[in-house]
Amino acid sequence: MRVAILGAGAWGTALGVIISANGHEVFLWGHRAEPLHKMQRTLRNEPYLPGIDLKGNWNFTSEIRDALEKPELVLMAVPSKGFREVAMKLEQVEKPIVSVTKGIEYESGMTMTQVLESCAPKASVGALSGPTFAIEVAQHFPVAIVAASRDEAIARQVQAILHRPTFRVYTTTDLIGVELGGSLKNVIALAAGLGDALGFGDSSKAALVTRALAEIRRLGVACGAQPETFAGLSGLGDLTLTCFSPLSRNRRFGERLARGESVERILATSHIVEGYPTARAAYKLARKMNVQTPIIDEVYALLYEGKNLRDSLRDLTTRESKAED
Amino acid sequence: MRVAILGAGAWGTALGVIISANGHEVFLWGHRAEPLHKMQRTLRNEPYLPGIDLKGNWNFTSEIRDALEKPELVLMAVPSKGFREVAMKLEQVEKPIVSVTKGIEYESGMTMTQVLESCAPKASVGALSGPTFAIEVAQHFPVAIVAASRDEAIARQVQAILHRPTFRVYTTTDLIGVELGGSLKNVIALAAGLGDALGFGDSSKAALVTRALAEIRRLGVACGAQPETFAGLSGLGDLTLTCFSPLSRNRRFGERLARGESVERILATSHIVEGYPTARAAYKLARKMNVQTPIIDEVYALLYEGKNLRDSLRDLTTRESKAED
Questions:
Q1: B181 touches chain A (CB under 8 A)
Q2: Does the pLDDT value for residue B190 go beyond 50?
Q3: Quick one: pLDDT at residue A319?
Q4: Per-residue pLDDT averaged across B258-281, rounded?
Q5: Looking at residue A126, what is its pLDDT?
Q6: Mutating which of A203, A213, A239 best tests the B interface, going by the most B Cβ atoms within 10 A?
Q7: Which residue of A103, A200, B25, B259 pairs with A195 in a disulfide if CB–CB is 3.0 to 4.6 A?
Q8: Is B122 designated active site?
Q9: pLDDT digits (tens, 9 = 90+) for B143-168
């Protein structure tokens, strides 16, 4: 079976490793020709997945028409910032398109599959999300992930193509719940990184994760998600991973910020950090839905309103409450 | 106000640090006189909380009658193994007794407060549980915890005595939910440690945590707990901390086991590891309640039935499922 993967970063390539290991043909597309040529030559994506050999049936192209020639499935693995621009090229696609990108479009408040639906009206859409680092997936570490689509048949098709013993794919029809869980956790990871840099300890972080999940669930449910989705892989699972693992880019962003680096400098010297734009989009979405999101609000104020770090943390840790919510 | 703390290990002493910082008088009791004398002399509990000065109004005793002379509140901080033996000395106590111990009695299947109720019929009981390492609490890192009692007034009294800006105490009436969440997570931490030793990666651990919380919730609800309690500090919060933090003793137990050390040797060379006895009690409880607990079952088989580690992990990672549960 032929699968097109749009976006040749770490996650798109790692999913290609899984798909090709399952015997399918991968068409990997990226904007710039030169890195694709190099991948064709070396059968590696060294800048993003150092040391990983790309085995099986791979094709590399910077011509999106080549990638879209008769795929059974299209995976969208481009960052949220450039997502719509690529989605607009999919107007004629009739096969399922699955977003593996975690983010919310700031201007519209749309999730990535909502952007897809508006740009590719002939295609069914879905999302794939869960607690997975690209480098661990590419090394075939055992992981679990969830395929979501309002059309259960689409979710099952994604499962059929990607599932393998070390890459367990579950299915759900709660698409918006899966997308919001995956997106919002990146904002919380920034807060976790701030705490890490200030030496707040792991007990403190566990409390942050617990309160944050309640906040994410509240916002998600207001947007139409099922509450139980947030107890699953794309909610609790992904939030936990992002906040606790040293590997998380979003957590590290917070850590570097707390150590005094400027936002500009961190963005210029790391791969895409989705938590940064998502903080702004999530803050706007929460106001629109009239949901209280104290942790997201503090991260937003810190990143976009120049709020002082110490003031932010004081406001986060001194809120009083009589009951867990 | 006078507070008796029974059990002079890390957690009992750390709670004394919080209580004395709030201006209350602490009576710390332990079995053996010699360590108590040393604490009286040095105002430190060096074996358990190295480097922490015990400031404020402390009394140290190995005579339980001294500790129980007119306290307003009794905290039970002895390991689950010796819990009933100490509880039997509390028959005449009429003030609230709060368990801060995480475990299930194997013979009876009782939680610690159920043991208290059977031994101290005149007292109201409660539990205090959440994601907290003793050493971090003793250093006044910001943490959050939950005080549980079926009698809300008791939970609020505990909150009033212990709450401070860096030690946020929430309240709930779901006593059994708080106790089971706190106890069962220690079993899961052993599994997390096994995975760590085998280099399974953090993505894999996040999936384990997610599936484990569903399993804990199933068993808890069957025992009468509220499902939402497991999304709180004593459920998700504590589970996350125990599985992800390098500081967790239970996680480290699993790690050492996977590296080939014998159970006997690990137990002999570490402080109390509650996950070890709890695995057996939890397995028995799940059978009694007729609840499926695949992760607990594998840990039990590994620890108590001599099951091979590779077989256990194969059985854990190859279970198939079509939906998140």
A1: no
A2: yes
A3: 56
A4: 92
A5: 98
A6: A203
A7: A200
A8: no
A9: 999 999 999 999 999 999 999 999 99
Output phi, psi for B271, to 5 deg. -65, 175
Find the catalytic residue in B95, B102, B185, B205.
B185
- Name B115's Cβ contacts closer than 8 Å, sequence gap at least 6: B83, B84, B87, B105, B108
Task: Please give, rounded to a whole number of angstroms, the shortest distance from the CA of B146 to a CA of chain A.
Answer: 8
CB of A106 less than 8 A from some CB of B: no
Q: Which amino acid is at B198?
A: L
Q: What is the pLDDT of residues A206-233, one digit of tens each?
A: 999 999 999 999 999 999 999 999 999 9
Q: Is the pLDDT of residue B236 over 70?
A: yes
* pLDDT in the model for residue B325: 39
In this predicted model, what pLDDT tens digit does every residue of B237-269 receive, in sequence order? 999 999 999 989 999 999 999 999 999 999 998
Q: A244 and B210 in contact by Cβ < 8 A?
A: no
User: Can you tell me which residue has the tokens 């490793």?
Assistant: A17
Q: Which residue ranges in chain A fall short of pLDDT 70? A: 314, 316-325
- Structure confidence at residue A106 (pLDDT): 94
Describe the crossing of helices B202-222 and B275-289 by its angle, rounded to 10 degrees: 50
Query: How far is it, in rounded angstroms, from Cα B234 to Cα B172?
Result: 11
Residues of B in contact with A209 (CB under 8 A): 236-237, 240
d(CA A207, CA A191): 12
On the question of pLDDT at B320 being above 70, the answer is no
SS3 A7: coil
How big is the CA angle at A81 (ends A251 and A131), to the nearest 5 degrees? 40
Q: Tell if the CB–CB gap between A207 and B144 is shorter than 8 Å.
A: yes
Smallest CA–CA separation between A136 and chain B, in Å?
Answer: 7
Residues of chain A in contact with residue B141, where contact means CB-CB under 8 angstroms, are 199-201, 203-204
Count of Cβ atoms closer than 10 Å to residue B32 Cβ: 9
Which tokens go with B99? 């368990």
Sheet containing strand A25-29, strands side by side: A57-61, A25-29, A2-6, A73-76, A97-99, A125-129, A143-148, A167-172
Q: Tokens at residue B78, please?
A: 């002895």
Helix (H/G/I), strand (E/B), else coil: A323? strand
Instruction: Give the percent of chain B with pLDDT over 90.
Output: 90
Q: Which residues of chain A neighbour B321 with C-beta distances below 8 Å?
A: 168, 170
Q: A95, A102, A185, A205: which is the annotated catalytic residue? A: A185
What is d(CA A225, CA B169) in angstroms, rounded to the nearest whole number?
30
CA–CA separation, B100 vs B126, rounded Å? 9
Q: B310, B318 in Cβ contact below 8 A?
A: no
C-alpha–C-alpha distance, residues A214 and A199, integer Å: 24
Main-chain dihedrals φ then ψ at residue A284, nearest 5 degrees? -65, -40
| Tokens (6 digits) for B157 | 């009294």
Q: Taking a contact as any Cβ pair under 8 Å apart, which residues of chain A between 151 and 170 contact chain B?
A: 159, 165-166, 168, 170
Q: Which residues of chain A have a CB within 8 Å of the CB of B204?
A: 136, 141-143
Token pair recorded at residue B97: 């007794």
Chain-chain contact of B214 with A200 (C-beta, under 8 angstroms): no
Contact A237 B209 (CB under 8 A): yes
- Assign B106 a pLDDT band (cuts: 50, 70, 90): very high
Closest by CA to A148, choosing from A112, A173, A185, is: A173
A171 close contact with B: CB closer than 8 A: yes
The per-residue pLDDT for range A184-210, each reduced to its tens digit, is 999 999 999 999 999 999 999 999 999
Binary contact (A247, B202; C-beta < 8 A): yes
